[in-house]
Amino acid sequence: MSDYPAAVIFDFGHVIINIDVPKTYKTFAQICGKSAQKVEKLFQENQIFRRYEIGLYSDDEFREAVRQILGYPFSDAEVDMAWNALLLDIPLERIDFLLKLRSKVPIFLLSNTNTLHIQAAEKILKETCGISSLQSLFTHAFFSYDLGLWKPDPTIYTAVLDQIGLPPEKVLFLDDNADNVASARHLGILTEHILPLEYTMLDVTSYPPLT
After folding, report:
1. pLDDT confidence bin for 106, thresholds 50/70/90
2. Two domains, one topology: 7-18+90-206 and 21-86
3. What's the chain's average pLDDT?
């Protein structure tokens, strides 16, 4: 009988890495001369995050979509810089927490994300602690663009559960997004709706012992 869930799944943004999404809108706005509110509205209307993060765009197709949506001839470097502006830092204490937890149970990452963000985030990770990839930090990292699915779609959780070979009631999922948490909980997954910076205080032993 273990005192821990059989596995723990972490979200990425606001949980592992600090992010500031409005910073991306502001950076695009500064380059193209539109307001940040207009950039955000156009991105939302065209579902730019979702479409890129479920793999509907290649990186080059994504950059061209941004040019078309915002009506401005951004260079590739400008698109990448503005898109990655939302990525901030990865506190070292979070990495330490994950490494300690990994010695007790398998840990997984499940993120709605894209290749440009992952490449930039892994540079931050390397600078923070010398770890070169998210895949090496976790037992396995699941990315929406690889799965072709997006939280909170329930199928993304069932796909991950199938791959890790565990029933939902033996898995703990941590996410800062209430819709993502609700969708996972509906499937019977143990969930924790957290606020940024708080998960390091989580005591996974507070959950019922699992066989």
Report:
1. very high
2. no
3. 92
Q: What is the DSSP track for 8-60?
A: EEE-SBTTTB-B-HHHHHHHHHHHHSS-HHHHHHHHHHTTHHHHHHTTSS-HH
**Three-point CA angle 24, 113, 157, nearest 5°:** 140
Beta bridge partners of 19: 87
Residue 147, by phi and psi: left (phi above 0), alpha (psi -120 to 50) or beta? alpha
CATH class of the region 21-86: mainly alpha
**Which architecture, in CATH terms, is 7-18+90-206?**
3-Layer(aba) Sandwich (3.40)
Identity (one letter) of the amino acid at 160? Answer: V
Give the CA distances from residue 37 to residues 26, 30, 64, 155, in Å, rounded to whole numbers and listed in that order: 8, 12, 21, 32
Give the neighbor-by-neighbor strand order of the sheet with 171-175: 140-143, 107-111, 7-10, 171-175, 190-193
Place of tokens 């948490």: 181
Domain borders along the chain are 7-18+90-206, 21-86
pTM comes to 0.91
How far apart are the C-alpha atoms of 97 and 90, rounded to whole Å? Answer: 12
